[in-house]
Amino acid sequence: MNTNTKFLKFINELGNQSQVKFLVFEKTFPISIFALFFGFFCGNLFGTFLNFLRNFFSWDGFIIIATILTIEFINYLNYKNTKNITKLKKIVPQKSILFWNFFRFNQQPVIRFFNFYKIGLLLGFFTDAFKVGS
């Protein structure tokens, strides 16, 4: 009897794919949860430290603009197009070493960390707004 059937090949392939996906999940899940909770923590503490930030900025609009620009920059890094990066490399001079070192290593885990931090931060703002409103 032939044990090398299509069904057994499919089962073996499915097992291998699920094992690879589980290993990826095992590596990225703890960092993602940490970033999410850290962002949530920072979002909840933002209202507490707002009076401290007001000592440095004379207008609350600067704090809001800085927060929005940070969130939008994280969104840009997460959802950027490779065509835009080549345009950006043409605009930025070659002398900026830190900028070019950022594009040399694998950015995906760092961008994923910042994206989960951003999600946690926005959830923290949302829950803090409920605490202030009630």
Automatic annotation (TrEMBL):
InterPro entries: Uncharacterised_Ycf20 (IPR007572). Coiled coil: none annotated. The keyword Zinc does not apply. Keywords: Chloroplast, Membrane, Plastid, Transmembrane, Transmembrane helix. It comes from the Eukaryota. Pfam families: DUF565. The chain crosses the membrane at residues 29-50, 56-77. PANTHER family: PTHR33787, YCF20-LIKE PROTEIN. Belongs to the ycf20 family. This is Ycf20. It comes from Halochlorococcum sp. NIES-1838.
